[in-house]
Amino acid sequence: MDSISFHLDVISGVGSLYSGSVKSLRVTGSEGEMGIRYGHTPLLTIIKTGMVRLVDINNKEDEIYLAGGVLEVQPDNVTILADTALRADDIDEAKAQEAIKTAKKMLENHGSGDSDYAHALSRLADAMARLKVVEISRNRRR
Question: How far apart are CA 137 and CA 142, in angstroms?
Fold first, then answer.
């Protein structure tokens, strides 16, 4: 049985990145990863850095990198207000790889209780999430 679709809006500070009907999406909120389909219980949560994975009404999969923000779920409408939202084609892979190297160097130079250590971990997670979106998108095109 085909899923009933719902409307999804992904909006960042620079504008709308996605607006359309989808069958499902997966995103990581403050309580962990969640899957959302039509009729989901209303929900408001903070988004963790990572990606939103969606399946549109034509069964086409898409990934969008998200860096923070808020997710609001209503039974037939979902809105993501992201601090940063990027499609795989908009991610500079070389910069993300360089950010990983820089963050790893920072981690080597600071103790685990240091605020610089926490900042480096955050930067590392951000860069790794960007590369993951690029990798998934590249593999899907093959």
Answer: 9
**Sequence-distant (≥ 6) Cβ neighbours of residue 85 within 8 angstroms:** 10, 11, 12, 17, 64, 65, 66, 67, 69
The answer to whether residues 37 and 71 touch, using CB atoms and an 8 Å cutoff, is no
- Kindly list the domain boundaries of the chain, sorted by start residue: 6-88, 92-141
Yes or no: say if 50 and 28 are a contact pair by the CB < 8 Å rule.
yes
Tens digits of per-residue pLDDT, 48-84? Answer: 888 899 999 999 998 898 988 999 999 999 999 998 8
For the stretch 84-114, pLDDT in tens is 888 877 777 788 778 778 878 877 777 666 6
Report the top-level CATH class of 6-88. Answer: mainly beta
Residue with tokens 């899923």: 3
Element (H, E) at 21: strand 15-29
